[in-house]
Amino acid sequence: MLEALGRGLAYLLSGSADVLEIVLLSLRVSGTAVALGVLLGLPVGVAVGLGRFRGRRIAIAAIHTGFALPPVVVGLFIYIVLSRSGPLGGLGLLFTPTAMIIAQAVLAAPYVAGITLAAVQSVPESVRLQARALGASRMRALATHLREARLGIGAAVVAGFGAVISEVGAVMLVGGNVQGETRVMTTAIVLETRRGDIAAAVALGIVLLSIAFAVNIALTRLQQGPASVARSSRPGA
Amino acid sequence: MTASAVLEAERVAFRIGDRPILADVSLRLGAGEVVAVLGPNGAGKSTLVRLLLGLERPHAGAVRLRGTPLSDLSERERLDLVGLLQGSPMFAGSVADNVAYGLRIRGVAPAERARRVEAALDRMGVAGLGGRDVRSLSGGETQRVAIARATVLDPDVLLLDEPAAGLDVASRRRLLADLEAAVRRGGGATLLVTHDPQEAFALADRVCVLEGGAVSQEGAPADIVAEPASAFIAELTGAELVVDGVLVARRERLVEVEMGGGVRWLAVPAAHSAADWTPGRRVHVAYRPEDVALTQSGGGAPSTPRNRAQGTVSSMAPLGGLVRVRLEGPVPLVALITREGATELDLAPGRQVSALLKAVATRAYMAPAKHPS
């Protein structure tokens, strides 16, 4: 294990252009997918979390079921839709990064919606009512409410990113792991392991974890604000 | 009363599910007037505030701002109506951000905004807190900032729901003094909602008592104290209650009430109470503890007070220069007497005494068919 780790680091330090390409594509695909997932999941989460309509419980259960969506099943579904004989086959998207983005956006959206839902519900209704009572329009009062839920909404984005950057089933099926075109970190790890190049697989695993860590540090900073120093200054309260 | 109402609720009703919260409540707030809505917990006060702010729609009746139903107001017109909700939550950020919230909505320029925020904080005695994170405030500071956040807007109509709730007595008194100054300064109309009669009577030109979802009395504080319309209001305004009396007979201008244990008292029927004083009906008998005189037990000497009751001292509590004496017996009573009086009678828990009360200081209220608990 240690030996593999050492060889993996050596592999990385050799500075292969392939590795950089794979990492960049992973970030592009998963980053775009999360952005789309937020665009889709955030309004749904807010609407289901704060709305009062028939079938709301069903909607919540459906969103939570989305947490358990197996990536490979989502990949299969997107594969069928995009395959030559499928309804969107004419677009020629199968085995392109776009197909991977679509699949991962579908996987990210339930996480974003579900965690956003819980986040907006955890903010008391009195926040919105007090905002209204100070003259805020409905939209502005909603914005104030969402601002109070920002930690939870940040967590929703982090969870969505974590779910897609690490998944392999969907991108493998709809991307095809084509070298230089649709190969991302997770599919590359699978490939290298199968080929017996454990060093390369471990190296990519390290990169994947490091990038996940770096991205989460950046997201956490956005979510929690800069390292809090001001909070402790409370003169004689 | 007031010629033209700025804010007016007309025969408003509201229910949650099948449970009626407000029934047929009417209320008028004139320009520059300070009105208090006084009521116990669960009387529907906070619901009324929400209706008056247009945050909920009544199931019947209407709320109007200068004659226009709230639902027809534009967002611009709504800005004249500002409310401080009960337990008003702070928004994440600094104190100044919070106080500036409504000013930003109204498009007040940054320099003017900063000036008004500072002035409002100063009026509420929390000048210099502007830069603090709201999470670092104490409970009392938070309430002051919440009031500043509403009063800074100088609205035509300001609704305050329990602005001083949950504070200790001293903080509450200081807060109310600052609140009154801030409210009177603006010159707008103010509706203060509170469960505390002292707060209502001290601040308001007019008091409206809300009981079980309906207005039970409305008038100037002095009139309400002088002529409470229900036993509940009598209790609120400082009189004590002796419940569960039964009407025996009507006698000229008085009523005779069986108080329990064969004790019969005479009482003045309350002017506002229902006129149906038929024997056998349950009545509440109210009196003020300072009107109760105590004498040595057993002394059968004739006296002018007509109402008597034997009792045992169960507790004595100092209250300023006075002593509050609680008596147990067929008619449980509370007497407020001077310390000197207590010493002269050699009062101590367990001692038997007679309580005397003039009939004219005893008031009878018809017990409502269903009194809200």
Explain this structure to me?
The complex is a heterodimer of chains A (237) and B (373). With 237 residues, chain A is mostly helical. Chain A has one domain: MetI-like fold (Orthogonal Bundle), CATH 1.10.3720. Chain A has eleven helices and no strands. In chain A, helix 6 crosses helix 7. Chain B is of the alpha+beta class. In chain B, 25% of the residues lie in helices and 36% in strands. Chain B has a six-stranded mixed sheet, sandwiched between helices. A five-stranded mixed β-barrel of chain B has the order 11-12-13-20-14. Chain B has a five-stranded antiparallel sheet with strand order 15-19-16-17-18. The mean pLDDT of chain B is 88. At the A-B interface, helix 6 and helix 7 of A face strand 6, helix 3 and helix 5 of B.
Task: Summarize it.
Chain A is built from eleven helices and no strands.
Task: Write the CATH fold name of chain A.
Answer: MetI-like fold
Helix and strand run of chain B: EEEHEEHEHHHEHEHEEHHEEEEEEEEHEE
What is the number of beta strands of chain B?
20
Name given to the CATH homologous superfamily of the largest domain in chain B: P-loop containing nucleotide triphosphate hydrolases
Spatial extent as radius of gyration of chain B: 24 Å
Shape of chain A: globular
Strand content of chain B: 35-45%
Largest sheet of chain A: none
- Major sheet size, sense and barrel closure of chain B: 6 strands, mixed
CATH class of chain A: Mainly Alpha
